[in-house]
From TrEMBL:
<dbReference type="InterPro" id="IPR037293">
    <property type="entry name" value="Gal_Oxidase_central_sf"/>
</dbReference>
<dbReference type="Pfam" id="PF07250">
    <property type="entry name" value="Glyoxal_oxid_N"/>
</dbReference>
<dbReference type="Pfam" id="PF09118">
    <property type="entry name" value="GO-like_E_set"/>
</dbReference>
<keyword id="KW-0732">Signal</keyword>
<dbReference type="InterPro" id="IPR011043">
    <property type="entry name" value="Gal_Oxase/kelch_b-propeller"/>
</dbReference>
<dbReference type="InterPro" id="IPR009880">
    <property type="entry name" value="Glyoxal_oxidase_N"/>
</dbReference>
<feature type="domain" description="Glyoxal oxidase N-terminal">
    <location>
        <begin position="50"/>
        <end position="438"/>
    </location>
</feature>
<dbReference type="InterPro" id="IPR013783">
    <property type="entry name" value="Ig-like_fold"/>
</dbReference>
<dbReference type="InterPro" id="IPR015202">
    <property type="entry name" value="GO-like_E_set"/>
</dbReference>
<protein>
    <submittedName>
        <fullName>Aldehyde oxidase GLOX</fullName>
    </submittedName>
</protein>
<feature type="domain" description="Galactose oxidase-like Early set">
    <location>
        <begin position="447"/>
        <end position="551"/>
    </location>
</feature>
<dbReference type="InterPro" id="IPR014756">
    <property type="entry name" value="Ig_E-set"/>
</dbReference>
<feature type="signal peptide">
    <location>
        <begin position="1"/>
        <end position="28"/>
    </location>
</feature>
């Protein structure tokens, strides 16, 4: 009798670094198995997903801009918007924001009145999204969105004149006390705090932004902000970076310029990430920043003077802030990229996707879409190019990590209006999901599944997660981590952070063949500001789906 049952043997231990695995069919004939994949979720969500935020009920709020002309989705209930200051159409019955339900893969229109173009956001500790600024009648708006069930009617609530200053291309960061700092914006060399302390407050000066502005090239919009474990902010603008004490409006430390002299912020548009904060070691957390890609110096004026599209930057810089004399360690991405998005995956790897190989951010400013994601492994500093391409995701595309471990990708609108023809890169209204290699069925035998978890995780207090897995290996291969969902736009995932938590014990329940993990909540609100996080278990490099926990 011939045994026809195929045994799949994986020949590599570091399987997750590859998008392909070499497998054997038991006959000694290795074949390649595609581990990663893209899925077209919806060919049109009616708008271009320029800004995205995952909410703690698993829904994703998305929006583009109100002065873009007629979108491909109508406002609910035959509603229309009349806005005399709108630069495209004053009478518009189409929606410019939608709420996407991940589980049912459906969406509904939301009603936003003021212009959200190139704005920013952060989620309050109670789960309400605060979204700030934009253009024209939206430049000083604060808007709120409180998550509700999909069939319920929750919608945007807007405060058009809320902000102290105009905030167009600003960056937001949630603070340890639950307030939000809003930094910069076009011609705004200052920052302000939400909620606004009083109606007379005008915000605080921030000369660093004036100093780092490259004239009409700017190159310091959407500054990269990361809250550090000591409570200060890391701010990166153009080529310079500092530790900033926003409470005293004082620069605590300035780092060397990133080598090479290439600007990294809009419209040069590289990206930046705070690498996972590790609480498992019994030493102080050593925060580390990584900045990747962008356009070379002069790239923007090169495009604007119609000389062409300069090849994008392929370098990344890593900066360990706690070193006595921190210096950038440079690395080279296998694919040069401008307008890439950098996201932390549950595995603590970094995915870099979307964007272009030449040009800069801005209308019609880029060429050569880079459609293959790259996954970077911070631990051994390796980049892997993924094998499957997406559609071109140029200017105004975005990406967020979903609780189920997929990466949601949408947008691409590299010109004014929703132009689907007669343009180099048509406006893209579709929504795609990228399945990183770890989601492949190949790893199902060791994939942990969270059965139950405490809903509240308190600082320095232990909590429980109950899980099962077909095959449990060893405790050393198990890790518990929390990941804050990002507000992503213009190549920067605001508020994204991962904290790897201390595991205290793992107990097996013989009867149910499940396991109970006891782990320690984050040490401080500076390490993990209060709010909703996705909790992941990772077992031998394979993550569970995320469970929502509230850190408080
Ligand atoms: C607009 O939406 C309709 C369905 O409502 C769809 O058939 C059409 O392809 C969409 N257009 C674009 C450009 O996505
Ligand atoms: C969260 O707090 C904000 C500001 O106080 C408030 O407007 C909002 O309604 C709150 N959201 C929830 C879900 O309670
Ligand atoms: C895009 O469409 C608008 C409105 O239909 C039109 O005015 C504009 O010229 C188009 N842009 C390009 C680059 O073709
Ligand atoms: C995990 O949860 C299940 C269902 O609530 C329970 O039966 C089991 O005993 C738990 N296992 C552990 C190890 O606590």
């Amino acid at each position: 009798m011939i045994n026809t049952k195929k045994t799949l043997i994986i020949f590599t231990t570091s399987i997750l670094c590859l998008s392909l695995a070499i497998l054997s069919d038991g006959q000694g004939n290795p074949f390649l198995l595609q581990l990663d994949r893209w899925e077209m979720l919806l060919p049109s969500i009616g708008i271009s997903a320029m800004h995205m935020q995952v909410l703690h009920n698993g829904m994703v709020i998305m929006f583009d801009r109100t002065d873009f002309g007629i979108s491909n989705i109508s406002l609910a209930g035959g509603m229309c918007r009349y806005d005399p200051s709108d630069t495209a159409v004053k009478f518009d019955c189409s929606a410019h924001s939608v709420l996407y339900d991940v589980v049912s893969n459906t969406f509904r229109p939301l009603n936003v009145q003021t212009d959200t173009w190139c704005s920013s956001g952060a989620v309050l500790p109670n789960g309400t999204l605060v979204q700030t600024g934009g253009y024209n009648d939206g430049e000083r708006a604060a808007r709120m969105f409180t998550p509700c069930g999909y069939t319920q009617r929750c919608d945007w609530i807007e405060f058009p004149q809320y902000l102290a200053q105009r905030r167009w291309y600003a960056t937001n960061q949630i603070l340890p006390d639950g307030r939000i700092i809003v930094v910069g914006g076009r011609r705004q060399f200052n920052f302000e705090i939400f909620p606004r302390p009083d109606s007379r407050s005008r915000g605080s000066r921030f000369e660093f932004l004036r100093e780092t502005s490259d004239g009409s090239n700017e190159n310091n919009l959407y500054p990269f902000l990361h809250l550090l474990p000591d409570g200060n902010l890391f701010v990166f603008a153009n080529t310079r970076s500092i530790v900033f004490d926003y409470k005293k409006n004082r620069i605590v430390k300035e780092f060397p310029e990133i080598p090479g002299g290439d600007p990294r912020n809009y419209p040069s548009s590289g990206s930046s990430i705070l690498l996972p904060l590790d609480e498992t070691k019994n030493t102080n957390i050593e925060p580390e920043i990584m900045v990747c890609g962008g356009a070379p110096k002069g790239g923007f004026s090169y495009v604007k003077s119609r000389r062409g599209f300069m090849p994008a930057t392929s370098t990344c810089g890593r900066l360990k802030l706690s070193n006595p004399n921190p210096s950038w360690e440079m690395e080279t991405m296998p694919l040069p990229r401008v307008m890439g998005d950098m996201l932390l995956l549950p595995t603590a790897d970094v995915i870099i996707l979307n964007g272009a190989g030449a040009g800069t951010a801005g209308w019609e400013n880029a060429r050569d879409p880079v459609t293959r994601p790259v996954i970077y492994h911070p631990f051994d500093r390796r980049f892997s190019i993924m094998s499957t391409p997406s559609r071109p995701r140029m200017y105004h595309s975005s990406a967020v990590l979903l609780p189920d471990g997929r990466v949601l990708v949408g947008g691409s609108n590299p010109h004014v209006y929703y132009n689907f023809t007669n343009v180099e890169y048509p406006t893209d209204l579709s929504l795609e999901a990228y399945y990183p290699p770890y989601l492949s069925f190949t790893f199902d035998l060791i994939r942990p599944k969270i059965l139950t978890s405490d809903k509240v995780v308190s600082y320095k207090r232990s909590f429980n997660v109950n899980f099962s897995t077909p095959q449990f290996l060893t405790v050393d291969l198990l890790s518990v981590r929390i990941l804050a969902p990002s507000f992503t736009t213009h190549s920067f995932a605001m508020n994204q952070r991962m904290v790897i938590l201390k595991l205290l014990s793992v107990e097996r329940d013989q009867l149910t063949n499940s396991y109970r993990v006891n782990a320690l909540g984050p040490s401080t609100a500076e390490i993990a500001p209060p709010g909703y996080y996705m909790l992941f278990l990772v077992h031998a490099g394979v993550p569970s789906s995320g469970a929502w926990v509230h850190i408080e």
